Amino acid sequence: MRIELISVGHKLPDWAEEGTQTYLKRLPAGCPVRLTEIPAAPRGKNADIDRIKTMEAERIERAIPKGARVILFDERGRDRDTRQWAAAMGDWLVEARDVALIIGGPDGVAKSLRQRADETWRLSALTLPHPLVRVLVAEQLYRAWSLHQNHPYHRD
């Protein structure tokens, strides 16, 4: 099982890069996570947002490992608490199937990608900036792993 964290956007602020890497590096070899950055499509004053989302969705699709479970982060998704993340991670480990975690662009994702997802999760009812979302996902992956392994990082 490998986790592919696919995120639209690159050249994030230093704090976001450092935060993301801090948590991804803590994960053991038995829970490998690879970050794939998808360049955001250029946006101008009168940009065709549907076309942009379609272009980004095509790039994301190419990055999804064949046969992977696809989980999309979206404001319309299902709320998951930390224990549910840990349970999901346990299922992924048992299933031994690759998992693709998708963070879309600033305008969301194309309908085709939303339909392609096996599950859609919501991180918060708040609107969050993409650099922060990447850090939050990395931290929650580490927290879920630590909870699943009875590691003391997670405290009740």
Description:
Helices cover 43% and strands 21% of the residues. It is α/β, with parallel strands linked by helices. It has a five-stranded parallel β-sheet with strand order 2-1-4-3-5. Helix 1 (14-26) packs parallel to helix 5 (130-148). The longest helix has 19 residues, at 130-148. The radius of gyration is 15 Å and the shape is globular. The mean pLDDT is 91.
Low-confidence stretches: none
Question: What does the oligomeric state look like here?
Answer: single chain
Class based on secondary structure composition and strand pairing: alpha/beta
Helix content: 40-55%
Task: Calculate the terminal CA-CA distance, rounded to whole Å.
Answer: 28 Å
- Note the main sheet: 5 strands, parallel
- Mean pLDDT figure: 91
Strand order of the largest sheet: 2-1-4-3-5
Strand content: 15-25%
Written as H for each helix and E for each strand, in order along the chain, the element string is EHEHEHEHEH
Helix count equals 5
Radius of gyration: 15 Å
- What is the 3D form? globular
Count of distinct strands: 5
